[in-house]
Amino acid sequence: MNLRDFRRAGHAPTLLAAFLYFDMSFMVWLLPGALANSISSEFGLTDFQKGLMVAVPLLGGAVLRLVLGLLADRIGARRAGLLGMAITSVPLTLGWLWADSFSAMILVGLLLGAAGASFAAALPLASRWYPPQYQGLAMGIAGAGNSGTALATFFGPRIAAAWGWHAVFGLALIPLLLVMGFFWLVARDAPNQPAPRPLSAYADVLRIGDAWWFCLLYAITFGGFVGLASFLNVFFVSQYDVSKVDAGSFATLCVIAGSALRPFGGHLADRFGGVSVLSGLYLAAGAALLGLATSPPSLFVGTALLFATMAALGMGNGAVFQLVPLRFPREIGVVTGLVGAAGGFGGFLLPTALGSLKQLTGGFGPGFVAFGLLGGLGGAVALSFASRGWRDMLLETGDRIEPDAPAVRPEVQGVA
């Protein structure tokens, strides 16, 4: 690929703005998880409350992603992104100046879902500038903003140790406002904006069973990745009694594995077939989680197993979205929004369940067993069952669309 041709094909300032918006949003979205140990110490939270507090932003992101996606269709991705950042400034301000109780932090977390909804504006803003042959690279650059997760887990505990956790929310306003200003100055909607998708398009797609299967598959991979990313700081302190700052370092190491290897998962799926690769990744994640649960491993072994888990889940995210456009080539926008929302909902369930089971049983083992069996083994079984209906459309040697097979079912022909 000629990078000079790539630069000429699209709009580099918009691509950079989309990346920065996505990166900053991911950082802000995961702040309650990064600061959970400091917040829980001040409020005296139970294990269940810790899990719920770090999970609530993920639920808010799942709901608001659909809302921001509809707005991006109707007012343009640039305006939707600016609105999303403006709304995100509200919970940051509340977390800085007002949040003085567990219930207040739940409200802050829900509103932080506006940052998690950035998928719906940042990715279409970037991708619509580029022709099909450059879509993968453009989406990869914009999507690399999920590295903001590592910024939250690494810097959040350190700033909290120096100035208190309230100050972290206040200081996060600085990059938010800087990115918002840059975004306003340079980001532009592509001239070839598609027509807004009607609400009925979502209802039409939800009548197709495969859409629900993809929601389940992504709820395991992305939900597992973001759910664990928000919970790992709590886990390392509770399980290994390390300092809050060291917990952030160990969590960052694991998070980087999932963030950095997501594109590699898509590459493997292109080469060896999405179904085969994704099945292997589910089993690998399940095996690592069961290894964590069978007996409390040492800090080194536990970190290695979590690193492997996050790597498998991160690559699984790429593999899922290698399959989605092959199964739904004409409904990709609608299906992507629904599947992404399901991923956020899965992220909400995981830390909530881990915290609840820790409080009920006194250990993390049952939670990891449940996720290993239901997410790892269960995901592989679900994929095997669901993919039987795709064999008329997907060739496992590269997952290409069969020439003579219908691209979509008749009931959703023409859906944008």
Write the SSE topology.
Blueprint: H1 3-9, H2 12-29, H3 31-34, H4 36-43, H5 47-75, H6 77-97, H7 102-111, H8 113-116, H9 119-127, H10 135-143, H11 148-163, H12 165-186, H13 199-206, H14 209-240, H15 244-272, H16 274-294, H17 299-327, H18 332-361, H19 365-387, E1 394-395, E2 400-401
Antiparallel strand pairs: 1-2
Helix pairs in contact: 2-9, 2-10, 2-11, 2-12, 5-6, 5-7, 5-9, 5-14, 5-18, 6-7, 6-9, 6-12, 9-10, 11-12, 11-15, 14-15, 14-17, 14-18, 14-19, 15-16, 15-17, 16-17, 16-19, 18-19
Written account of the structure:
The protein contains 19 helices and 2 strands. The protein has a two-stranded antiparallel ribbon. It folds into 2 domains: 11-188, Growth Hormone, Chain: A (Up-down Bundle); 197-416, Growth Hormone, Chain: A (Up-down Bundle), CATH 1.20.1250.20. The chain is mostly helical and 416 residues long. Helix 2 runs parallel beside helix 10 and helix 18 (332-361) runs antiparallel to helix 19. A hairpin with a 4-residue loop joins strand 1 and strand 2 (400-401).
